[in-house]
Amino acid sequence: MQDKLSLMIPGPTPVPESVLLAMGRHPIGHRSADFQKIVRRTTEQLRWLHQTSGDVLALAGSGTAAMEAGIINVLSKGDTVLCGDNGKFGERWVKVAKAYGLTVQVIQAEWGQPLEPEAFRAALDADAGKQIRAVILTHSETSTGVINDLEAIAGHVRAHGTALTIADCVTSLGACDVPMDRWGLDVVGSGSQKGYMMPPGLGFVAMSDRAWSAYERSDLPKFYLDLGRYRKSAHADSNPFTPPVNLYFALEAALGMMQEEGLEAIFARHARHRAAAQAGMTAMGLPLYAAAGHGSPAITAVAPEGIDAEVLRKKVKDRFDILLAGGQDHLKGKVFRIGHLGFVCDRDVLTAVAAIEATLQELGLHTGSVGAGVAACAAALAG
């Protein structure tokens, strides 16, 4: 059946009909008073979501663009940075930092394991000369389904006194608590196609006062991603370049929905869906890939033993029109990932678990009690 595809991946995520309808409006002039009102409104909504009184800037680009912008606007040539690397996106920030000539020290953990806050503390404490200018890490490592302890790591960074915390919150913002001001985060990057419940196309960078002080010293090359331009324009309810006007319509609608639900309810919903997905997989005898107790509220990674994960994914899509995410790099064929991020409800999670269980039965690979996965998932959702 056409037009029934259900996205259960970590992005793009499902988009509410009201957001799609808002996006379908006729464009308006991006220098008009009407558009300025939308910029003013969404700026306040973004501050609410980030739990900050500081600047949250919208760029036409992906979450990667937002993170690259954050890195290049607060650092200078030759600066030393500490990068956390425990998955595909941690690896990416190492590559970005090296591409701009930064001196990179890496704190590494095996894929599937969380970054160890104590390793950051030790490296920062050993930096007697205060040469480390920033710590760059991913909060929710999408490739492995691991959530890192950003709060603890950011605390060690603040104790250092000089370094900034630059956090990839692309799949954590809008899925779990990321109180920017309370945790003392300096740069937070995110993207519209995740917890924002929107199509791809907008990236967001939140900046602290400490980050803006570093911006004044930064000498890395930038033009389109020069956040100083965006800050000046945002304070005038505008944008330095031509923005994706219709995505702003969608942004206003999506953030309005989130405000109506409330942050605590949003976080509770994502935690419930994580618990339900994990319970369903475990009841079917499918091992979770992320270390116990460190699963992301945005995505559950599963490492089925003796099963080609790509065969399972294809069968689920062909049979039930549900798209699961695959493993990346060396995990391809070994891991599949269930996205439960953004505009996802209990029904979606329960349906995905049921489809996986039915597919295992059809392939003759179901080794547990029939219906055990669905029952465990339903119990977790009810609890």
Q: Which short descriptors sum up this protein?
A:
383 residues; Aspartate Aminotransferase, domain 1; 2 domains; seven-stranded mixed sheet; four-stranded mixed sheet; 13 strands; 44% helix; globular
Arithmetic mean pLDDT: 97
Beta strand count = 13
CATH superfamily of the largest domain, please?
Type I PLP-dependent aspartate aminotransferase-like (Major domain)
Q: And the CATH topology of the largest domain? A: Aspartate Aminotransferase, domain 2
Uncertain residue segments: none
Given the C-alpha coordinates, what overall shape results? globular
The CATH class of the largest domain: Alpha Beta
Which sheet architecture does the biggest sheet show? 7 strands, mixed
Q: By helix and strand content, what is the structural category?
A: alpha/beta
Element order, helices and strands? Answer: EHHEHEHEHEEEHEHEEHHHHEHEEHH
Folded structure, characterized:
44% of the residues lie in helices and 16% in strands. The chain has 383 residues and is of the alpha/beta class. The chain folds into 2 domains: 244 residues, Aspartate Aminotransferase, domain 2; 120 residues, Aspartate Aminotransferase, domain 1 (Alpha-Beta Complex), CATH 3.90.1150. The strands form 3 sheets. Strands 2-10-9-8-5-3-4 form a 7-stranded mixed sheet, sandwiched between helices. A 4-stranded mixed sheet has the order 1-12-13-11. A two-stranded antiparallel sheet has the order 6-7. The two termini are 34 Å apart.
